[in-house]
Here is the input.
Amino acid sequence: MGSRASSLLREEDIEEIKKETGFSHSQITRLYSRFHSLDKGENGALSREDFQRIPELAINPLGDRIINAFFPEGEDQVNFRGFMKTLARFRPVEDNEKNKGPPSGEPLNSRMNKLLFAFRLYDLDRDDKISRDELLQVLRMMVGVNISDEQLGSIADRTIQEADTNGDMCISFTEFTKVLEKVDVEQKMSIRFLH
Here is the structure.
């Protein structure tokens, strides 16, 4: 099956995806094979249902939020190139790559792009800020019924109080990045098998 999958992917497509994502030729062909195995409709695109069949996403409390990140707004399917661009955000950053971005801008797996991806998991209404209600919703997704609403409210209030520097009772992307300044985001948001 791997050879069939890689034969459907043109060499020029592989080269373009390498430039866009930083993945190697072998990683691209391996991920293409995985993409193909997930494509139950066999139409060259993945649906939300295809992603929901992935056991790691099915059990992840933020699985739906992660799945949503693969789909451009208003779209209900993602092609291989879009799949690869989203996965690239989880590609580990090598020490020698950290300061070396492609001429076209920051690599998809840069610290800033990883932070933006994480921020968007919390920004449910996509208004470029995380409100107390959004923070509560995500916290509920992550902890389920293991913590009372009162405790969750206290965590959300404290988090906003510590992060909100402009007093608007929300967390902007700038405030979000400031809070995570000392966190090794590159390590925490990298999937080792993509290495």
